[in-house]
Amino acid sequence: MLLFWSTDCAVCLNTLPELRRNLAGWRGKDFVVVAVNQDPTERSLTDYEALLDRLVAPDPQMKIVWRRDSLHRDSFGEMLPRELHTVVLDRDGYVFKSVHGRFPPELWDDVADLLLN
After folding, report:
1. Which pLDDT tens digit goes with each residue over 91-104?
2. Which residue range forms the structural domain that includes residue 52?
3. Which residue from 24, 36, 61, 66 has the highest number of Cβ atoms inside 10 Å of its Cβ?
4. What is the CATH number of the domain that holds 39?
5. Sheet of 33-37, strands arranged across
6. Is the entire prediction scored with pTM above 0.70?
């Protein structure tokens, strides 16, 4: 799952704890979240990560990257910086679902189906 988010997006910050709870239930499954931060400055992300490190144990199934890093490459084009965009990829790397904004609860059912099949 790719999660495009920013630290100044209320929906994004509200979604991350839900995502962590679901990841805990899928521990050991073949599932990874790459949370691609879209903040304009890396400092915003590092400040958030410093706070997160004090409050939440790291999750090996979740990797946070900064989209503006010179080493980051993707082909998703321009996105709204303050909008949550979630992309679920199937086992072959193809887009299974793409959701803008808050994602519906049934998206978790779709992810569970992918993991079980």
Report:
1. 898 999 999 988 78
2. 2-116
3. 36
4. 3.40.30.10
5. 62-66, 33-37, 2-5, 85-89, 95-100
6. yes
